[in-house]
Amino acid sequence: MKREKDSFTPKVLVIGALGQIGQELLLALRDRYGQDAVIGSDIRVTDEAPAPFISLDVMNRKKLFEVIEQHQINTLYNLAAILSAKGEQNPEFAWKLNMEGLLNSLEAARHTCLEKIFWPSSIAVFGPNSDKNQTPQLGIMDPTTVYGISKLAGERWCDYYSEKYDVDVRSLRYPGLIGYTSMPGGGTTDYAVEIFHEALQKGTYECFLSADTPLPMMFMPDAIKATIQIMEAPAESIRIRSSYNLGGISFTPAELVVAIQQHLPTFQCSYAPDFRQAIADSWPGSIDDSAASEDWNWQADYDLNAMTEEMLMQLSAHYASVPQP
User: Fold this and answer.
1) Catalytic one among 33, 77, 147, 302?
2) What is the DSSP string of 227-257?
């Protein structure tokens, strides 16, 4: 049975909690709602997984329903996905995971005590014919990767379940995400994380995108902030049930190099574009996220220089604490 909306207290399940976003979102949600109110899950469980934590395959609908009912979950964050670059290496499985995981989550909202779902989309829904500068919320979407195709299809499923079954599903089109807690998981924007590690460890980096490739990016604290903010917004404020454009910082690899060199003057970057260049060329250079600002007061906190300074500070502290061989 569904709970009364006016007595809503989050009891949360995070699927994909060992991923790049999941690790930081899990900690932020526990800080906000309490340790026992937020259960982490992933298809694998490591010794480092912070309890409460369970093993869960999002494609196993029966087990998903059982976990939701057993723990009386009312809020689900489904972060399980195969990202853009890895998806191109195994398109069929990427489609299967990305679609079945979402549909199982949406069905759970119809048939269990689940009341609210977060599912991430991506700028990968856009393609070569999309507006590249300040890409609008509503515009041409012609993705060229299985990841983008699955995210676009997923957006339509979210809107469908909202309209047809009154499912409270909320979504953000994440840009490239930059964080210091974990390494990225196979996306086209991964260079923007790798470059910081290589700058500190080696003083050089070979970028797999060309120097002048602009892409929308976001510092992870802003992504976590936006995710929690949209989920806590009143339902009547969420006008868009497919997915909201989300913008942060737009820059090229060359511009990021200059920002890093302000702190590490001897750092050098070379460029050797690979298959990910074609993917990046099909994506926007910047994003118009005015709908998110208007509907639930979204605003990013970090610009390029602030993000660069924080990344280098955090990673420098990390490497200083790691014993050297």
Assistant:
1) 147
2) HHHHHHS-GGG---SS-EE---EEE-HHHHH
Lowest average pLDDT, out of 20-34, 177-191, 227-241, goes to 177-191
Residue 51 class from Cβ within 10 Å (0-12 exposed, 13-18 middle, 19+ buried)? exposed
Q: What is the CA radius of gyration of the chain?
A: 19
What is the per-residue pLDDT for 61?
A: 97
Helix (H) or strand (E) holding 207: strand 204-207
CA angle 40, 46, 52 (to 5 degrees): 30
Q: What does the pLDDT average to over 91-98?
A: 94
Long-range Cβ pairs for the range 31-36 (8 Å, 24+)? 32/228
Residue 113 has pLDDT above 60, yes or no: yes
Our answer to whether residue 147 is catalytic in this structure is yes
Please check whether residue 136 is in contact with residue 288, taking contact to mean a CB–CB distance below 8 angstroms: yes
Structural tokens at position 121:
């989309």
Give the pLDDT band (50/70/90) at residue 147: very high
Adjacent-strand bridge partners of 218: 177
Strands (E), 38-115: 38-42, 53-55, 75-78
Q: Are strands 249-251 and 215-219 parallel, antiparallel or unpaired?
A: antiparallel
Among 203, 81, 204, CA closest to 153: 81
287 pairs with which residues across the strands?
A: 135
